[in-house]
Amino acid sequence: MIRPLLLSCILLPCAAAAELVVRDLRLGVATRPTEFDFTITSPLAEVKGSDAFEGGLALEGGIRWSFAHAGDRLGLVAGADLTFEGQSYDGGDGLNTMMAKASAGLGWALTDQLTLLGEGLVGYGLSTLRLPGTAAAGTYEADGTTVAYEARITGTWQFTRGFNAGLMAGWLIAEHDLSGDDSDVMLEQSGWYAGLVMSWRIDDVPTPLE
Fold first, then answer.
1. What is d(CA 177, CA 31) in angstroms, rounded to the nearest whole number?
2. Is the pLDDT of residue 167 over 60?
3. Are 55 and 33 within 8 A, CB to CB?
Protein backbone atom coordinates (compact mmCIF):
# COMPACT_ATOMS: atom_id res chain seq x y z
CA MET A 1 0.00 0.00 0.00
CA ILE A 2 2.80 2.39 0.81
CA ARG A 3 4.52 1.93 -2.57
CA PRO A 4 1.60 3.36 -4.67
CA LEU A 5 1.33 6.28 -2.26
CA LEU A 6 5.04 7.04 -2.58
CA LEU A 7 4.82 6.85 -6.38
CA SER A 8 1.84 9.19 -6.38
CA CYS A 9 3.70 11.69 -4.24
CA ILE A 10 6.60 11.62 -6.69
CA LEU A 11 4.69 11.61 -9.99
CA LEU A 12 1.83 14.02 -9.28
CA PRO A 13 4.01 17.07 -8.70
CA CYS A 14 5.91 16.27 -11.91
CA ALA A 15 2.67 16.04 -13.87
CA ALA A 16 1.35 19.27 -12.41
CA ALA A 17 4.56 21.11 -13.30
CA ALA A 18 4.19 20.52 -17.05
CA GLU A 19 2.79 23.49 -18.99
CA LEU A 20 2.55 24.29 -22.68
CA VAL A 21 5.04 26.89 -23.89
CA VAL A 22 5.83 26.92 -27.62
CA ARG A 23 7.72 29.90 -29.03
CA ASP A 24 9.74 28.07 -31.64
CA LEU A 25 11.60 28.65 -34.88
CA ARG A 26 11.45 25.32 -36.69
CA LEU A 27 13.34 23.47 -39.42
CA GLY A 28 12.08 20.17 -40.78
CA VAL A 29 12.53 17.64 -43.56
CA ALA A 30 9.81 15.21 -44.67
CA THR A 31 9.04 12.64 -47.33
CA ARG A 32 6.36 13.23 -49.98
CA PRO A 33 3.73 10.82 -51.29
CA THR A 34 5.02 9.41 -54.58
CA GLU A 35 1.81 8.31 -56.35
CA PHE A 36 -0.35 10.79 -58.24
CA ASP A 37 -3.31 11.00 -60.62
CA PHE A 38 -3.05 13.20 -63.68
CA THR A 39 -5.30 14.79 -66.27
CA ILE A 40 -3.71 16.16 -69.46
CA THR A 41 -5.89 18.44 -71.57
CA SER A 42 -4.70 19.48 -75.03
CA PRO A 43 -6.47 20.88 -78.11
CA LEU A 44 -6.76 17.33 -79.47
CA ALA A 45 -7.70 15.18 -76.46
CA GLU A 46 -8.02 14.73 -72.72
CA VAL A 47 -6.02 11.93 -71.10
CA LYS A 48 -6.33 10.67 -67.51
CA GLY A 49 -4.19 8.18 -65.63
CA SER A 50 -2.01 7.40 -62.63
CA ASP A 51 1.75 7.38 -62.19
CA ALA A 52 4.39 7.83 -59.48
CA PHE A 53 7.49 9.86 -58.79
CA GLU A 54 10.70 8.04 -57.91
CA GLY A 55 10.85 9.87 -54.60
CA GLY A 56 10.91 13.28 -53.04
CA LEU A 57 11.61 15.40 -50.00
CA ALA A 58 10.30 18.63 -48.54
CA LEU A 59 12.43 21.11 -46.61
CA GLU A 60 10.44 23.50 -44.44
CA GLY A 61 11.23 26.39 -42.14
CA GLY A 62 8.76 28.25 -39.99
CA ILE A 63 7.47 29.31 -36.61
CA ARG A 64 5.04 27.92 -34.00
CA TRP A 65 3.52 30.02 -31.22
CA SER A 66 1.28 28.79 -28.38
CA PHE A 67 -1.47 30.80 -26.67
CA ALA A 68 -1.85 28.76 -23.48
CA HIS A 69 -2.00 30.56 -20.11
CA ALA A 70 0.43 29.91 -17.27
CA GLY A 71 -0.15 26.43 -15.84
CA ASP A 72 -2.13 25.14 -18.86
CA ARG A 73 -0.95 21.87 -20.40
CA LEU A 74 -3.29 22.22 -23.41
CA GLY A 75 -3.60 25.20 -25.72
CA LEU A 76 -3.94 26.63 -29.20
CA VAL A 77 -0.79 26.66 -31.33
CA ALA A 78 -0.61 28.65 -34.56
CA GLY A 79 2.18 28.96 -37.09
CA ALA A 80 3.46 29.51 -40.61
CA ASP A 81 5.94 27.69 -42.86
CA LEU A 82 7.81 28.19 -46.11
CA THR A 83 8.54 24.90 -47.88
CA PHE A 84 10.66 23.78 -50.83
CA GLU A 85 9.75 20.40 -52.33
CA GLY A 86 11.44 18.31 -54.98
CA GLN A 87 10.18 15.05 -56.51
CA SER A 88 12.18 13.26 -59.19
CA TYR A 89 10.63 11.45 -62.16
CA ASP A 90 12.29 8.91 -64.46
CA GLY A 91 15.76 10.31 -63.91
CA GLY A 92 14.65 13.90 -64.59
CA ASP A 93 13.87 16.97 -62.51
CA GLY A 94 10.23 16.02 -61.99
CA LEU A 95 8.13 18.36 -59.85
CA ASN A 96 9.50 21.27 -57.83
CA THR A 97 7.29 23.34 -55.54
CA MET A 98 7.71 26.41 -53.35
CA MET A 99 4.83 26.93 -50.94
CA ALA A 100 3.71 29.12 -48.03
CA LYS A 101 1.59 27.41 -45.35
CA ALA A 102 -0.50 28.50 -42.38
CA SER A 103 -1.20 26.12 -39.49
CA ALA A 104 -3.43 25.90 -36.43
CA GLY A 105 -3.86 23.12 -33.89
CA LEU A 106 -3.77 21.92 -30.32
CA GLY A 107 -0.61 21.44 -28.27
CA TRP A 108 -0.28 19.19 -25.22
CA ALA A 109 2.63 19.26 -22.79
CA LEU A 110 2.82 15.67 -21.56
CA THR A 111 5.88 16.48 -19.44
CA ASP A 112 8.27 19.39 -19.13
CA GLN A 113 10.32 17.85 -21.96
CA LEU A 114 7.76 16.09 -24.19
CA THR A 115 5.20 18.04 -26.24
CA LEU A 116 2.65 16.72 -28.74
CA LEU A 117 1.12 18.92 -31.43
CA GLY A 118 -1.81 18.04 -33.66
CA GLU A 119 -2.47 20.56 -36.41
CA GLY A 120 -4.04 21.26 -39.76
CA LEU A 121 -2.17 23.12 -42.49
CA VAL A 122 -3.25 24.94 -45.64
CA GLY A 123 -0.71 25.87 -48.29
CA TYR A 124 -0.52 27.79 -51.55
CA GLY A 125 2.45 28.00 -53.88
CA LEU A 126 4.09 27.68 -57.28
CA SER A 127 5.15 24.48 -59.04
CA THR A 128 7.26 23.59 -62.04
CA LEU A 129 7.04 20.24 -63.83
CA ARG A 130 9.91 19.09 -66.03
CA LEU A 131 9.78 15.66 -67.69
CA PRO A 132 12.68 14.14 -69.65
CA GLY A 133 12.37 13.79 -73.41
CA THR A 134 11.91 10.57 -75.33
CA ALA A 135 12.56 9.45 -78.92
CA ALA A 136 9.05 10.60 -79.84
CA ALA A 137 8.94 13.90 -77.95
CA GLY A 138 11.24 16.43 -76.41
CA THR A 139 11.48 17.60 -72.82
CA TYR A 140 8.14 18.72 -71.40
CA GLU A 141 7.93 21.76 -69.14
CA ALA A 142 4.93 23.29 -67.39
CA ASP A 143 4.36 25.60 -64.44
CA GLY A 144 1.45 26.81 -62.36
CA THR A 145 -0.04 26.93 -58.89
CA THR A 146 -0.44 24.43 -56.06
CA VAL A 147 -2.94 24.13 -53.22
CA ALA A 148 -2.27 21.69 -50.37
CA TYR A 149 -4.00 20.50 -47.20
CA GLU A 150 -2.37 18.54 -44.39
CA ALA A 151 -3.23 16.90 -41.08
CA ARG A 152 -0.12 16.38 -38.95
CA ILE A 153 1.02 15.10 -35.55
CA THR A 154 4.41 16.18 -34.19
CA GLY A 155 6.18 15.03 -31.04
CA THR A 156 9.21 16.97 -29.78
CA TRP A 157 11.61 16.47 -26.88
CA GLN A 158 13.27 19.46 -25.19
CA PHE A 159 16.96 18.54 -24.97
CA THR A 160 18.04 21.93 -23.63
CA ARG A 161 16.20 25.08 -22.64
CA GLY A 162 16.47 26.40 -26.19
CA PHE A 163 16.63 23.29 -28.41
CA ASN A 164 13.96 20.71 -29.29
CA ALA A 165 13.89 17.87 -31.79
CA GLY A 166 11.44 15.16 -32.72
CA LEU A 167 9.32 13.34 -35.30
CA MET A 168 6.29 14.24 -37.39
CA ALA A 169 3.80 12.24 -39.44
CA GLY A 170 0.82 13.34 -41.48
CA TRP A 171 -1.54 13.02 -44.42
CA LEU A 172 -1.17 15.30 -47.47
CA ILE A 173 -3.59 16.26 -50.23
CA ALA A 174 -2.15 18.46 -53.00
CA GLU A 175 -3.40 19.70 -56.36
CA HIS A 176 -0.99 21.11 -58.96
CA ASP A 177 -2.63 23.09 -61.79
CA LEU A 178 0.01 23.44 -64.52
CA SER A 179 0.23 24.70 -68.09
CA GLY A 180 2.88 24.41 -70.80
CA ASP A 181 3.52 23.37 -74.42
CA ASP A 182 -0.11 23.97 -75.48
CA SER A 183 -1.51 21.65 -72.80
CA ASP A 184 -2.84 21.82 -69.25
CA VAL A 185 -1.85 19.27 -66.61
CA MET A 186 -3.63 18.62 -63.32
CA LEU A 187 -1.66 16.50 -60.81
CA GLU A 188 -3.43 15.26 -57.69
CA GLN A 189 -1.46 13.73 -54.82
CA SER A 190 -2.54 12.21 -51.52
CA GLY A 191 -0.85 9.99 -48.99
CA TRP A 192 1.12 9.60 -45.80
CA TYR A 193 4.43 11.23 -45.04
CA ALA A 194 6.94 11.30 -42.17
CA GLY A 195 9.81 13.52 -41.18
CA LEU A 196 12.22 14.99 -38.67
CA VAL A 197 11.92 18.40 -37.02
CA MET A 198 14.26 20.62 -35.00
CA SER A 199 13.28 23.82 -33.23
CA TRP A 200 14.91 26.67 -31.36
CA ARG A 201 12.88 28.27 -28.55
CA ILE A 202 12.73 32.06 -28.71
CA ASP A 203 11.09 32.46 -25.30
CA ASP A 204 9.96 29.97 -22.62
CA VAL A 205 7.89 32.30 -20.40
CA PRO A 206 4.16 31.32 -20.33
CA THR A 207 1.39 33.80 -21.09
CA PRO A 208 0.29 35.55 -17.84
CA LEU A 209 -2.97 34.48 -16.18
CA GLU A 210 -4.54 37.93 -16.63
1. 21
2. yes
3. no
Beta bridge partners of 119: 105, 152
Contacts of residue 173, defined as CB under 8 A and 6 or more positions apart, other chains included, come to 148, 149, 150, 189, 190
pLDDT over 80 at 68, yes or no:
yes
The whole model's pTM is what?
0.84
Burial class from Cβ neighbours inside 10 Å (0-12, 13-18, 19+) for residue 189 reads: buried
Give the H or E element holding residue 9: helix 2-17
pLDDT at position 42 is 85
Convert the pLDDT of each residue in 16-27 to its tens digit.
458 999 999 999
Cβ(109)–Cβ(125) below 8 Å: no
Cβ neighbours of 140 (radius 10 Å): 17
